Amino acid sequence: TYDCSVISAVICDHAEYQQRETDVRGIGQNCSYTLHSPNGTIESPGYPYGYPNYANCTWVIVAAEHNRIQLVFQGFALEEDFDLLSVYDGPPSPGNLRTRLTGFQLPSPIVSIGSRLTLWLLSDYAVSGQGFKAAYEGYAATQILTQLHEIVIEQDLNDKQKSAITEKMAEMCVCVCVCVCVCVCVCVCVCVCVCVCVCVWCVCGVCCGCV
After folding, report:
1. Are residues 134 and 101 in contact, defined by beta-carbon separation less than 8 angstroms?
2. What is the 3-state secondary structure (H, E, C) of the chain?
């Protein structure tokens, strides 16, 4: 909850945020990038020495069709509540908003739902942090699930970290599941087999009904 009387740039609701996005256009440093390489690094202008006031920058990451994008932050410091990095699954529209990031805590990794991810940085008229740095890489959905599974199994993670990873896997696992199943097969005449499988565990955290 924010006090709108403090300063007009404070984000009190979605409508005010949209107005702020409109107001900063044409003021300060504008930049726009479209990234088609399978992997790379994104840095805010001036990182790590501070981004400019009234910055209005977008980065559009485009992966191969049917692939997903994994975004891992390596540094993050924005003036809390006043300077924002918005992340969208697809074009920057309200319906595609994934999250808004601000402050000095390193965000968790983000995995896109589709093959396009947009980052939009907006800063106000005064005070700035170091900015942000993030590495991105395009993967097939099954590759990301496998990587996340290996992290859960091999690393010494606490319950909170494991829960966070499971949530990320569930977000992207709309149609793809990696399951461990118990199967019973009955074969007739050697070449004809009928198998019934019961899912006992799924990477994505939901029963996908493997048959």
Report:
1. no
2. CCCCCCCCCCCCCHHHHHHHHHHHCCCCCEEEEEECCCEEEEECCCCCCCCCCCCEEEEEEECCCCEEEEEEEEEEEECCCCCEEEEEECCCCHHHEEEEECECCCCCCEECCCCEEEEEEECCCCCCCCEEEEEEEEEEHHHHHHHHHHHHHHCCCCHHHHHHHHHHHHHHCCCCCCEEEEEEEEEECCCEEEEEEEEEEECCCCCCCCC
| Helices 159-172, 141-154: inter-axial angle, 10-degree rounding | 170
Q: Of 148, 199, 138, 153, give the one whose Cα is nearest residue 171.
A: 148
What is the rounded CA–CA span in Å between residue 138 and residue 132?
A: 20
Each residue's pLDDT tens digit, 105-115: 999 999 999 99
Whole-model pTM? 0.59
Q: Cβ(3)–Cβ(10) under 8 Å?
A: yes
How far CA 135 is from CA of 39, 43, 47, 72, 102, in Å, comes to: 7, 9, 14, 5, 18
Give the bridge partners for 139, in sequence order.
68
Query: Which residues, 6+ apart, have CB-to-CB distance to 176 below 8 Å?
Result: 141, 142, 145, 204
pLDDT tens profile 15-72: 334 444 444 444 568 999 999 999 999 999 999 999 999 999 999 999 998 899 999 9
Q: What is d(CA 63, CA 36) in angstroms, rounded to the nearest whole number?
A: 6
